Amino acid sequence: MSMDAAITFEGVTAGYGELMILDRLDLRAARGRITLLIGPNGAGKSTVLKTLFGLLKLRQGRIRLFGEDITGAKPRELLTQHGVAFVPQGRNLFGQLSVYENLELGGITLGTQETRARIPEVLALFPRVRERLHSAASSLSGGEQKQLEVGRALLLRPKVLLIDEPSIGLSPLVVQDVFRLLRRLADEQGVTVLMVEQNVKSALKMADDAIALEAGRLVLHKPAPQLLADPDIERLFLGGGHVPASLATP
Ligand SMILES: Nc1ncnc2c1ncn2[C@@H]1O[C@H](COP(=O)(O)OP(=O)(O)OP(=O)(O)O)[C@@H](O)[C@H]1O
């Protein structure tokens, strides 16, 4: 597939201790688009994000960002020098601290002055969170907390946003808010988004591209609308199992 790649994995093998999860994985995610990672439980979707963000060491292979080799780069370096932000699964705020303090911590590598100057720009995206600026983060709704986490990541004005299952614990309407926000970041700011999401159907409606993994290898890479229109989608993602030949990457 020819495209302007933001993220490239070339033969990446990585895992936990002796356990290798990614198996010579090749994948590409296009610049300024939203790419959804799908596949059965344990296929290695979250591991792709963690490996890209430097949380796991590669055994083999290379990772490139906008063509530049970033293999082995540490999370801090990725964040501050390469413009990669990671919003992990679950709740990652300091619940006792206020919304504002959580944002300040997100800008810790920028310095206080720069962070404070940027906070209004992030809050402009989240009117509801802005109204709760001095409340404890734990008092926000689940959706507002996820928005705040994304906002905190945006303080560094990332070029690439990695986001792992943002919809967990959120109601369908709130999930739509989070998805709309990601869409805006891609469309208005050219942010490249790589996302893992169990809520496959609604995520496909919002995403540009879909990559399916199985046992640490890529089994499909297609435009999201094309996949959404495929009658085999239920079997493929709700029932697990193998990718039908009709869906495989040409
Ligand atoms: N910290 C860890 N230590 C050891 N094994 C791990 C660790 N994290 C994940 N694994 C294992 O790695 C495999 C892949 O996990 P990963 O989280 O990447 O899968 P996934 O495709 O995101 O699946 P899910 O949809 O279930 O989250 C799983 O078998 C998991 O048990």
UniProtKB/TrEMBL annotation:
Annotated ABC transporter domain ranges read 7-240
Might you name a Gene Ontology BP term for this protein?
A: L-amino acid transport
Tagged with keyword Cell membrane:
yes
**Superkingdom of origin organism:** Bacteria
Q: What is this protein called in UniProt?
A: ABC transporter ATP-binding protein
* Pfam families linked: ABC_tran
Family stated for the protein in its record? Belongs to the ABC transporter superfamily.
| Taxonomic placement | Bacteria, Pseudomonadati, Pseudomonadota, Betaproteobacteria, Burkholderiales
Q: Which UniProt keywords apply?
A: Amino-acid transport, ATP-binding, Cell membrane, Membrane, Nucleotide-binding, Transport
One annotated GO molecular function:
ATP hydrolysis activity
Instruction: Record the organism.
Output: Ramlibacter cellulosilyticus
- On whether Transport is a keyword of this UniProt record, the answer is yes
